[in-house]
Design brief:
By secondary structure, this protein is an alpha+beta fold. Helices cover 41% and strands 14% of the residues. The structure holds adenosine-5'-diphosphate, 2-acetamido-2-deoxy-1-O-phosphono-alpha-D-glucopyranose and magnesium ion (MG).
Length: 363
């Protein structure tokens, strides 16, 4: 159900105005399938985003879409009146019946968003300002959602950042070795076991629950082409109750190294201190207004936890035969794991200096 004709048919289920000109696969996300749909409105081409939600991973798409509707409505009300307010929040395009989603004959859930023009996502960070801007945008996103009215959002994936549970799943994947690949990943498996204690740092810290994004990798923040501002935080599937430290940690994981997440030349993978500094300053410029001391004191260690968590998630998926993340080459998940573990080593080597920086910025 993904040839051009079928995509056009799905696009017609939504209130996308104008006549459809075509659709192309879009973005580099690992989970959902995304297309950019172009339609002609009075002769002017207009783009929309069409997404098929990964139903193996998100087992309750209706609850997920309810979260997204509540979150986007709340954010839109908060930014209304600001310049460019319609580019600061994702806006769902409803289906013809008025629902926020369309269910196809194969049981797939789809949604559409207005395309945010004049902004881009990047798989690797290029400048310190980009790191600053992305972190500021995520801090603001959390701040704007702090007064989201009850009830609590649905957990779209249970125990998403329960790192000890992620470790248990990894251990199980090693034990069952269903794809017979453990032999290929001996060093990485040893490294994971040697660093097991990292998994407990944030769960043991008794941090406050807030509305958080939970998937703040750099390519989930759109950077404005003209101003360089982190204009919109996207990919809202995992917005749910959580700790802000996982959001900050995932930015640290994805914005401090010059290399992409799956870089095979590990000499390119390292934590660049100036990027970390920009990240801390950008994040505190918005989130500094509401963070507790306990949260601030875990900023540096959060990167270590989530980089470890992500490494063992990629490794577990490699050992399980690549059932979760999209892969584009043999050994892709193992490459991703290796890059995470290299980055983790680099973070650990600079930990003391990172803690000092966080303390000095707070004064
Ligand atoms: P995934 O969950 O698979 O990562 P995303 O929601 O992050 O999917 O979308 C994939 C990519 O599509 C993003 O990285 C971004 O480049 C682009 N994208 C998503 N939504 C929009 C939008 N509303 N406007 C412009 N680009 C978008
Ligand atoms: C997935 O959807 P995407 O590609 O932004 C994953 C994140 C990982 C990330 C690693 C729902 O994010 O948790 O950190 O890949 N999303 C889900 O690149 O598992
Ligand atoms: Mg994404």
């Amino acid at each position: 159900m993904s040839n051009a004709q079928n995509i056009a048919a799905v696009a017609r289920e939504f209130q996308i105005p104008g006549e459809s000109l075509g659709a192309t696969p879009y973005g580099s996300g690992h989970i959902n399938d995304t297309w950019c749909v172009v339609s002609s409105r009075s002769g002017v081409p207009v783009r929309s985003i069409l997404q098929r939600i990964n139903k193996n991973i998100f087992t309750n798409p209706v609850a997920l879409m309810e979260n997204i509707q509540r979150v986007t409505a709340h954010l839109a009300a908060k930014v209304s009146g600001e310049t460019d307010s319609d580019r600061r929040v994702l806006a769902l395009i409803p289906a013809h019946g008025g629902r926020a989603w369309h269910l196809d004959a194969d049981g797939n859930y789809w949604r559409a968003y207005r395309f945010i023009d004049r902004a881009h996502s990047y798989d690797a960070v290029e400048t310190v300002d980009q790191a600053f801007q992305a972190a500021r945008a995520v801090g603001r996103f959390q701040e704007l959602l702090a007064d989201l009215p009850a009830p609590r959002l649905h957990h779209t994936i249970r125990d998403f950042h329960n790192t000890p549970q992620r470790f248990a799943a990894f251990e199980q994947a090693v034990g069952s070795d269903v794809a017979g690949r453990a032999i290929m990943a001996k060093c990485e498996i040893e490294f994971a076991f040697a660093n097991q204690s990292v998994a407990n740092i944030l769960v043991d810290a008794n941090l406050p629950e807030r509305v958080t994004h939970n998937d703040t990798k750099f390519n989930n923040v759109l950077i404005d082409d003209a101003t360089g501002e982190g204009i919109c935080v996207i990919d809202l599937d995992t917005v749910m109750p959580g700790s802000v430290l996982f959001d900050f940690g995932d930015m640290l994981r994805t914005t401090t190294s010059p290399a992409t997440e799956d870089e095979r030349d590990l000499s390119k993978v390292h934590m660049q201190f100036p990027m970390f500094e920009a990240l801390v300053r950008g994040y505190l410029s918005s989130a500094g207004r509401f963070l507790t001391q306990a949260e601030k004191s875990h900023l540096a260690s959060s990167g270590k936890v989530i980089t470890f968590e992500q490494g063992i998630r990629f490794l577990a998926d490699y050992l399980s035969g690549d059932t979760y993340y999209k892969v584009h080459r043999d050994g892709h998940n193992l490459d991703r794991c290796r890059a995470q573990f290299k980055l983790l080593e680099s973070i650990i080597n600079q930990e003391e200096r990172m803690e000092q920086l966080v303390n000095s910025v707070q004064l």
